[in-house]
TrEMBL record:
<dbReference type="InterPro" id="IPR036390">
    <property type="entry name" value="WH_DNA-bd_sf"/>
</dbReference>
<keyword id="KW-0804">Transcription</keyword>
<dbReference type="Pfam" id="PF03965">
    <property type="entry name" value="Penicillinase_R"/>
</dbReference>
<protein>
    <recommendedName>
        <fullName>BlaI/MecI/CopY family transcriptional regulator</fullName>
    </recommendedName>
</protein>
<dbReference type="InterPro" id="IPR036388">
    <property type="entry name" value="WH-like_DNA-bd_sf"/>
</dbReference>
<dbReference type="InterPro" id="IPR005650">
    <property type="entry name" value="BlaI_family"/>
</dbReference>
<keyword id="KW-0805">Transcription regulation</keyword>
<comment type="similarity">
    <text>Belongs to the BlaI transcriptional regulatory family.</text>
</comment>
<keyword id="KW-0238">DNA-binding</keyword>
């Protein structure tokens, strides 16, 4: 089972999936390159993701560095499952058919 992640939190994860482990400043810059958010918002989201166990903050070469603990593929699978449940009673084949149309 994967960790539930909000749409906003997924932007933080996306930055880590794109660039790999990052310290705070480059991570904030990466998120800001796609979202018009302030530093405080990004730091709040980082805190939430750490509490959920979706990211890890660890000291590397004297700096705090963040890395994703859930893979993009696990996240995508969970989101597809949620969408299929919401729209098609869990039938992923029906979701795929609808996407083909």
């Amino acid at each position: 089972m994967t960790i539930p992640v909000t749409e906003a939190e997924s932007e933080i994860l996306a930055a880590l999936w794109r660039r790999g482990p990052l310290s705070a400043k480059p991570l904030i810059e990466e998120v800001k390159s796609v979202q018009d958010w302030g530093d405080a918002t990004i730091k709040t989201l980082l805190g939430r993701l750490m509490k959920k166990g979706a990211i890890l903050s660890e000291r590397v070469d004297g700096r705090q560095q963040y890395r994703a603990l859930i893979s993009r593929s696990d996240y995508v699978r969970r989101e597809i499952g949620l969408l299929a449940r919401r729209l098609f009673g869990g039938d992923q084949q029906a979701l795929l058919a609808a996407l083909k149309d």
